[in-house]
Every structure is written in structure tokens, then in C-alpha cells.
Design a protein that fits this description.
Helix content is about 35%, strand content about 25%. The chain is of the alpha+beta class. The strands form 5 sheets. Strands 1-2-6-3-7-18-8-17 form an 8-stranded mixed beta sheet, sandwiched between helices. It has a 4-stranded antiparallel beta sheet with strand order 12-14-10-15, covered by helices on one side. A hairpin with a 3-residue loop joins strand 1 and strand 2.
Length: about 425
């Protein structure tokens, strides 16, 4: 392993200036799900220049890059491509000022989830594996997946023949950056994160003048009551030992302070680790919404629950094997997670399609900043925060090294 790590470091040293430019360019020019045309074209060009066989527009804006290096297993390495519809507030010199159309409106766009880090790591690993191709044998399938942020990009790629038009992987690998210290990795066999469901409720009232609420049915009152009351589903109906979250992230109602509108639209998310808890929460959400409308004398609300990403399940044997590699490489900086995370990720579609996988985490923030924040008892910006800003070089280097090590392990020559 020491020899491998030294070779990986040499490769990263020779290519890091290119990776830094790639990362900052992608960060400055983020694109939303299924709109990642510039991003995909840039990564496709990178992979072609390295000698990979590249196919574009798989699952609309996805890319597949293949490199065959003799007999052996077929291994998938996946990165996500898309950004989030939100303004950047990091103050970085390469901060995004980009906008795109989101739900019919021009909206600021930012790589607030770290997918730009993932892409830089992905490109780095592609070059490392070629630099070390005398040490492994098999086929690499590098996948650039669109629309991870709730857009169904993984499902779109599978539907477009990802595992029939191209070699089906024996194993799949992916990683995600988070607000932990850079230089650290985390891993876990079995369930890695949560199932996600989309929630949309339209409360239907009767509009009128704000000075005469008695002749109206106020949908904003219904929305407010629901937002508060639905939390009782979590605190009083769900098993307290089971993970479950209902969050309302968007409220759209009204146009002026003195007008009671006809409708109030809520959008949110439901997260869970197991099917029983998920079913209990969905039932509670629907009952609460209907009860709120009935109390107000309003028509039944329009309720839409959209199944999202399922929980990612790490293959037990592969996770034990790859986790041991990370532990040997990073020692105390390789952490075994005790419980699944609360975020969701549609990489699960690849697992469901029959690809045993290992999905792991890397930290992205300065350990000194984290220590100071803990001392000051202040939260640090995490994924989906407009201030989330991983430190590029140590984060990219750790991610690329960790991914390369687990790939070299499963691709080692017999």
C-alpha cells in the first residue's frame, strides 16, 4: 500500500494544477439537473484526452467513459454532475454568479452539495488508474450522472441502457463530500443513508379582503397549522427509535399583505431508513393535511407524494473489504459509521439494478475551522448551505487517493 500511495501522490502532483482549474471552472459554471450540457461536455473532453472511449447523452445529459485493461472485473466509478437552485454566499473568488431556469423562473445556481468536488476526484482517479495500469487488470466504466438532486438522473441512465448498451459492472463505487474534516474518510456496510419522498400539498381556500377574513377560508392558516401539526406524526406516531423526518422547504401563497389568497402550496421532503416508518409517516402526513382542511371547512387538499431516491445499500462483503483498505491507509482518520445518514442519494438506483456497491464519505472542511467552531459552539455550513465551501486541494487529494486505493484492491492482478 505504501508503494501504491506513493504512486498516487506522484500522479496527483503532476496533474493537480489541471484538476484545480477544472474544479474552479465547474464551480463557477454550475448547471441544474438535465441542463448539465457544458459540464458533461467538459468532462467528456477530459476523458477522451486521457484515452477513454466516451459516449455522451446517456440518460439525456449523462456520460459513460470506458477503459479496458485486460481480463478482470468490470468496475463502475460514478460522479454526479448537477448543482442546486440557490445563490452562492461563500465569498470565494471563483463563486458562482450563474443562473438557469428552474420551475419556469430564472434562478441563481450553486454547487452547494459538493458535486464539483466529486467531478474533480472522478477526473483525478481516471488519470491515476491509467498512470498505474501496470498494477491492475479489468474494465473501468466511469459514469457521469445527471440530475442527482431529486431529478431522477440515475433512473434515466438505467432506462437509457446504462447496463445493456455498456458492460454491466461487477462492482460500483461512489463517494460524497460532507462537512467533516478533510483528510478523513467514513464508511459503513449495509444501509448508508435514507429514503427520500417528495411532498406537495395544495390547500384550497376561498380568497378575499384581509380585513374581512370571516367571509373567506384562509389557506395560509391551513398551511401554517399543517406545518406545525405534522410534526406530531414524528413525535407521537413514529417509533422514537426509528429515524424519520418531515420538512417543509417551500411555501407559496398570496401576492399582497391585504389579500387572502385562494390557495397555499407547500413542498417538502419525507426521509426514513425503513419501509414501515416511511409508510407510517406518509399516512400521517395525508391524515393531518385532510384534517386541517376539514377543520377549516375547506375542500380536501390536493396531496401528491412522489417516491424519490431509495436508501443506498452497501454490499456487506465489498464494504468490509474496501473499508479494510481505507482503515489500513488512514488509520484513525477512517471512521466506521454506526448509523445511516439522513440525506438521500439516487445512486441507490444502480444498486437496485443489480450492481453491488461501496459508497463512502470524505470530509471537506479545515480541521482547525471545525475545532474553532466547536469551541465557539457555532454550527458550520454543510451540504445545501449557500456558504458550503470545501477546501479544494486536500479534499480532492483525499477523495482521489481513497477511491484509487479501493479500485486497485478489487482490480488487482491474480
Amino acid at each position: 500500500m505504501a508503494t501504491q500511495r506513493a504512486a498516487i501522490t506522484r500522479s496527483l502532483d503532476t496533474q493537480y494544477s489541471r484538476l484545480d482549474a477544472l474544479y474552479k471552472d465547474i464551480h463557477t459554471h454550475p448547471e441544474l439537473g438535465f441542463q448539465e450540457t457544458r459540464t458533461a461536455a467538459k468532462l467528456a473532453a477530459e476523458m477522451r484526452a486521457l484515452g477513454y472511449d466516451v459516449t455522451e447523452k446517456v440518460g439525456r445529459t449523462g456520460i459513460v467513459a470506458i477503459y479496458k485493461n485486460g481480463p478482470g472485473p468490470t468496475i463502475m466509478v460514478r460522479t454526479d454532475l448537477d448543482a442546486l437552485p440557490m445563490p452562492e454566499k461563500t465569498g470565494l473568488p471563483y463563486a458562482s454568479k450563474a443562473t438557469q431556469i428552474w420551475r419556469g423562473k430564472e434562478t441563481p445556481v450553486m454547487h452547494a452539495c459538493g458535486h464539483d468536488i466529486h467531478m474533480a476526484v472522478w477526473a483525478a482517479v481516471a488519470k491515476i488508474m491509467l498512470d498505474m495500469k501496470d498494477q491492475w487488470s479489468g474494465t473501468l466504466v466511469f459514469v457521469g450522472q445527471p440530475a442527482e438532486e431529486g431529478g431522477g438522473g440515475a433512473k434515466a441512465m438505467v432506462a437509457d441502457g446504462l447496463f445493456t448498451r455498456f458492460p454491466k459492472p461487477d462492482y460500483g463505487f461512489a463517494l460524497h463530500v460532507g462537512p467533516g474534516p478533510y483528510g478523513y474518510v467514513s464508511y459503513k456496510p449495509g444501509v448508508w443513508n435514507s429514503t427520500s419522498d417528495g411532498l406537495e400539498i395544495n390547500f384550497i381556500g376561498k380568497g378575499g379582503h384581509g380585513s374581512r377574513p370571516h367571509v373567506t377560508i384562509d389557506p395560509i392558516m391551513m398551511a401554517g397549522r399543517f406545518i406545525v401539526d405534522v410534526q406530531s406524526v414524528i413525535s407521537r406516531e413514529k417509533d422514537a427509535a426509528r429515524f424519520g423526518v418531515v420538512t417543509i422547504g417551500a411555501v407559496q401563497a398570496g401576492s399582497a399583505g391585504n389579500i387572502i389568497p385562494d390557495t397555499a402550496l407547500l413542498r417538502g421532503t419525507i426521509r426514513s431508513h425503513d419501509d414501515a416508518t416511511r409508510a407510517r409517516m406518509i399516512d400521517g402526513v395525508e391524515r393531518t393535511a385532510k384534517a386541517v382542511a376539514m377543520m377549516a371547512g375547506a375542500p380536501p387538499p390536493e396531496i401528491k407524494i412522489t417516491a424519490g431516491a431509495k436508501a443506498v445499500f452497501n454490499d456487506e462483503k465489498l464494504a468490509a473489504r474496501s473499508g479494510a483498505v481505507l482503515k489500513a491507509a488512514y488509520g484513525d482518520k477512517a471512521r466506521l459509521m454506526r448509523e445511516p445518514g439522513s440525506a438521500s442519494e439516487d445512486y441507490s438506483e444502480f444498486v437496485i439494478a443489480g450492481v453491488p456497491s461501496f459508497y463512502f464519505g470524505i470530509g471537506g472542511l479545515d480541521p482547525k475551522d471545525l475545532a474553532q467552531a466547536a469551541k465557539d459552539k457555532k454550527p458550520v455550513p454543510g451540504n445545501h448551505s449557500p456558504e458550503f465551501a470545501p477546501v479544494p486541494e486536500p479534499t480532492i487529494r483525499t477523495g482521489a487517493e481513497a477511491m484509487s486505493l479501493v479500485l486497485l484492491d478489487v482490480l488487482q492482478k491474480k
